[in-house]
């Protein structure tokens, strides 16, 4: 009953699995940072055109509860700007006309760069975590030029 059990194959397979998971996670983050560095948001988007803003995470929260989130998405967040409306995804894809946006608030704290959207017709807010301060500034500039209150 003296069976020899080799730990090497088990350890190697666990290490390979960990490397694959880390590669998938950090590859997406690296892609977000790369796209953020190259991002240009025009002041006017052509009809039928769209600009996708690279996000690290997206949150949905209750209006008036500041940055308290009830749902989040860090795998496939999305914020797409169109000519007169935007499309965003936390758990499901939703859209909002620029005239429905009550305000956009930019929050910068150390390495956190968050744009928080409050809507006139909804009790939920949308928050987008961006890769860097330059992307946040470009996004706030775009909404300021499109007559949305920026705080």
What does this entry look like structurally?
With 151 residues, the protein is of the alpha+beta class. It has one domain (36-150): PH-domain like (Roll), CATH 2.30.29. Helices cover 30% and strands 37% of the residues. The protein contains 2 helices and 10 strands. It has helices spanning 7-38, 133-145, and strands at residues 51-53, 55-62, 69-73, 78-81, 85-89, 93-97, 101-109, 112-119, 124-130, 149-150. The strands form 2 sheets. A 6-stranded mixed beta sheet has the order 3-2-9-8-7-10. A 4-stranded antiparallel beta sheet has the order 1-4-5-6, with no helix packed on it.
Strand order of the largest sheet: 3-2-9-8-7-10
Helix content: 25-40%
- Terminal residue distance: 73 Å
Q: Main beta sheet, described?
A: 6 strands, mixed
Number of helices, counting only DSSP H or I runs of 4 residues or more: 2
Low-confidence stretches: none
User: Can you name the CATH architecture?
Assistant: Roll
CATH class descriptor: Mainly Beta
Structural class designation? alpha+beta
Q: Tell me the CATH topology.
A: PH-domain like
The general outline is elongated
What's the gyration radius in Å?
20 Å
Mean pLDDT: 90
Number of strands: 10
Binned strand content: 35-45%
What is the domain total for the residues? 1
């Amino acid at each position: 009953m003296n069976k020899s059990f080799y730990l090497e194959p088990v350890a190697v397979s666990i290490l390979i699995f960990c490397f694959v998971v880390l590669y998938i996670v950090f590859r997406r983050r690296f892609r977000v940072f790369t796209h953020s560095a190259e991002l240009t948001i025009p002041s006017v988007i052509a009809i039928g055109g769209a600009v996708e803003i690279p996000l690290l995470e997206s949150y949905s929260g209750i209006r008036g509860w500041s940055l308290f989130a009830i749902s989040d998405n860090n795998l496939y967040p999305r914020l797409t700007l169109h000519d007169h409306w935007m499309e965003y995804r936390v758990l499901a894809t939703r859209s909002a006309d620029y005239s429905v946006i009550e305000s956009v608030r930019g929050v910068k704290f150390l390495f956190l760069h968050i744009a928080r959207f409050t809507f006139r017709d909804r009790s939920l807010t949308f928050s987008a975590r961006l890769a860097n301060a330059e992307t946040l500034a470009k996004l706030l500039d775009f909404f300021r030029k499109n007559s949305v209150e920026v705080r």
